[in-house]
Design goal:
Length: 723
């Protein structure tokens, strides 16, 4: 594995690059930050070991102590991010790219930037309206001529493909953006999003000095895009600048809680992260500006050795791409103080878990990348923290099970409860007080970042007003903390299940996230949470029988599991979210003073909700439109013919056998028996052939009714009524 990433020799920074921070200073920051977390972990672990010693040592207590140390260290890291971030925000810090770089007056004339939206069977309306909002915001800056927009489709749904093409042309016409907004769909979606970006760069990359990667739900403020380009121009050593996207447009209670916590806690946390990362930051896969040339030269990802789920395509490609840039001495920054970067989040617990499933497998793959030759130590640290985040779930479960085992063993062996004195000379507490002290410290470490975020808000009156005032923000923190306590045991079991399935060889199938707000049906929630409920009830009954005092201490964990179905259904609905908004709970700055980009996006989405006709799933309405409608057919065929000038696309067409007898046979079958006689893959093959689509359009209108399938006759009548 060590030689997998030896795609290019490690290069020295060219003379044009800025002088990086001295290694001694960077090392001191890393040492100070992580030694603080280690010291805190050491002190509390010593107290915990002392508590275990007082009731007699055993192998199970050794295992419990090891698990405690690992889990507490993760909590200590979060605490240090909050503590350092709060101190830096209050005392001020110059170690951020926007302060270190004099970029405000930088001229971006002569630059070229591609804004890339990668989509895969997405809600087409939402994607294009997000692009429209970004485009119009950029136009207001007067720098639109320096940017081009690309929709890079990997959609495998034939109807989605047709809708993407039709709405793309409508958008170009409405914005008068011909030659400014481009659409391209790949025939084969090899390597997912990273492969989509790679193929785009191979065809178009050398035309652009920079490119901005956006997700399907991304929205960017025009001024922010311009500022990012200015930063790149002023700092030639920067290879990637990652913004910190704000979560917006949440309507369910779950979504609003996630949105609130993101906006309130992220500024303090990211300031702490930037303290030790600085120019050795990370990449989160979207809403980041990238310098094209080094990315093309160094970030073409290989296939990992072995079989899935650990081998094959790298799912969490972003961390690895940042590591490869850093390996070649390019800087990667968090521009965490640049506002105007937005994204949306899952609207329910189950949708969030589905996303976590993909991220879990991707992060576990990084266990192989960790040992690649030439990576920077900080890059390995980023990768380890990503892996650590998903291992915490099964480790916490193991800790709870081990604790239960010790308590059960003690109860059923009939041994007397003899507590000895602590071996620490300064601690003169009873066993109960000793345990309570450790519990209070652990809760303090977990809750301190939230308290510091709230204090940071209170010390910034304008920002505090944007959250609805200190009282509402405090109520929001309390509500979010209660919800997180109930949600945490669900994530614990989900992450444990994900990791076990990966170890057993099961790989995730990537599907587009469900972004519509419809609420989780109760039957669906039962099918996903019945195991959680059963575990919570059985575990609770066992704890009640074993030790009723201990049962009440376990209540948050047991309640989250036992109440998983109503919790999942309730928090996925719009009505509780709307109620919370009316009460001013979980308010964010983007709700108090909505930016123009989001206001325009929401208004247009409401119009689409009222006016758009949605075809039922499986109706093949998109195929009918592409064949029968002269307007849509002409656009579709024109795009196919233009793509044939791309050698890669032409080679893929040849591989498919476009224009051959097999495709003609599929076309005849389509007309005679209807689209249901073809598989989705066969329909896509027909739709990828320009000559065939042109021929189908003519034949569908010229052939007599008796030679057409009943489905086509109905489609022609429906098309005539619409006209």
């Amino acid at each position: 594995m060590a030689g997998v990433f030896q795609t290019a020799p490690v290069s020295r920074p060219p003379s044009a690059r800025l002088t990086p921070m001295p290694r001694a200073r960077r090392g001191w920051r890393l040492f100070l930050f992580y030694s603080s977390a280690v010291a805190l972990t050491g002190v509390v672990s010593w107290l915990f070991a002392d508590l275990l010693w007082r009731t007699g040592w055993s192998a199970s207590r050794t295992a419990l102590l090891v698990l405690f140390v690992i889990l507490f260290f993760q909590a200590a890291l979060g605490c240090m991010h909050g503590l350092y971030g709060f101190a830096l925000r209050r005392l001020g810090t110059r170690q951020r790219i926007t302060w270190l770089t004099d970029y405000r007056d930088k001229d971006i004339a002569g630059t070229s930037t591609a804004v890339v939206f990668c989509i895969f069977n997405e809600n087409v309306t939402r994607v294009y309206e997000g692009l429209r909002a970004t485009y119009e915001s950029l136009a207001r800056t007067g720098r639109l001529e320096r940017f081009d927009f690309f929709i890079l489709s990997d959609s495998t749904n034939p109807d989605r493909w047709v809708e993407e093409v039709r709405r793309w042309y409508d958008l170009v016409r409405e914005l008068d953006a011909l030659g400014r907004i481009y659409y391209r769909r790949r025939l084969f979606n090899e390597a997912g999003k990273s492969g989509n970006v790679r193929d785009f760069l191979n065809a178009w990359g050398r035309r652009y000095r920079y490119f901005m990667v956006c997700d399907a739900d991304s929205v960017m403020r025009g001024e922010t895009l311009v500022d990012l380009v200015k930063l790149m121009e002023a700092r030639p050593a920067a290879g990637l600048i990652q913004t910190v996207p704000a979560l917006v447009n949440a309507e369910t209670l779950f979504g609003r809680i996630q949105q609130f916590s993101n906006r309130l806690y992220a500024p303090v946390f990211i300031a702490g992260l930037n303290y030790w990362a600085r120019d050795l930051g990370n990449y989160w896969g979207h809403n980041a500006l990238i310098r094209t040339e080094p990315f093309m030269q160094y970030c073409d990802l290989p296939q990992l050795p072995g079989r899935k789920p650990f081998g094959g395509q790298i799912l969490s490609h972003d961390f690895v791409e940042a590591a490869l840039l850093l390996r070649e001495n390019w800087e990667v920054w968090f521009a965490y103080d640049l506002e105007g970067s937005y994204e949306e989040a899952p609207q329910s617990l189950i949708e969030n878990a589905q996303r976590e499933r993909r991220w879990c497998q991707g992060n576990l793959q990084h266990s192989l990348v960790l040992f690649a030759l030439g990576l920077r130590g900080v890059s390995r640290l980023h990768l380890m923290l990503g892996i650590y985040g998903y291992l915490a779930g099964p480790l916490w479960l193991a800790f709870l099970i081990t604790f239960d085992w010790i308590r059960w063993f003690h109860e059923h062996t009939g041994l007397s409860d003899i507590t000895v004195h602590a071996f620490t000379p300064y601690l003169n507490l009873s066993g109960t007080a000793h345990a309570l002290l450790i519990f209070v410290i652990c809760m303090g470490v977990l809750l301190l970042p939230k308290a510091l975020s709230l204090a940071d808000l209170a010390l910034d009156p304008p920002r505090c007003a944007a959250f609805g005032g200190l009282a509402r923000a405090t109520a929001g923190v309390v509500g979010e903390t209660i919800f997180s306590a109930l949600h945490a045991p669900l994530l614990m079991l989900w992450h444990t299940r994900f990791i076990i399935r990966n170890l057993l060889g099961f790989s995730v199938t990537w599907k587009p996230p469900k972004r519509a707000v419809e609420g989780t049906p109760r039957t669906f929630a039962v099918s996903r949470h019945w195991g959680h409920t059963l575990i919570g009830l059985v575990w609770g009954a066992q704890m009640w029988e074993l030790d009723r005092v201990l049962f009440w201490w376990f209540t948050p964990v047991l309640a989250g599991l036992a109440l998983s179905v109503p919790l999942s259904v309730f928090t996925s609905q719009r009505r509780p979210g709307a109620r919370a908004r009316r009460l001013g709970l979980f308010r964010t700055p983007e709700e108090t003073a909505p930016p123009p980009e989001l206001t325009a996006l929401r208004a247009r989405m409401r119009v689409h909700e009222m006016t758009d006709d949605t075809a039922p799933p499986g109706s093949c309405a998109g195929l009918a439109e592409a064949v029968l409608d002269p307007y849509v057919n002409a656009i579709h065929v024109s795009l196919l013919r233009e793509n044939r000038s791309n050698p890669v696309y032409a080679g893929q067409l040849a591989e498919l056998g476009a224009g051959g007898q097999e495709v003609r046979a599929l076309g005849e079958q389509l007309l005679a028996k209807g689209p249901q006689a073809l598989t989705p893959a066969q329909r896509l093959r027909v739709m990828a052939d320009a000559q065939m689509m042109d021929w189908l359009h003519q034949q569908a209108w010229l052939r007599p009714d008796e030679s057409l399938a009943t489905w086509w006759k109905a489609a022609i009548r429906e098309f005539g009524r619409r006209e």
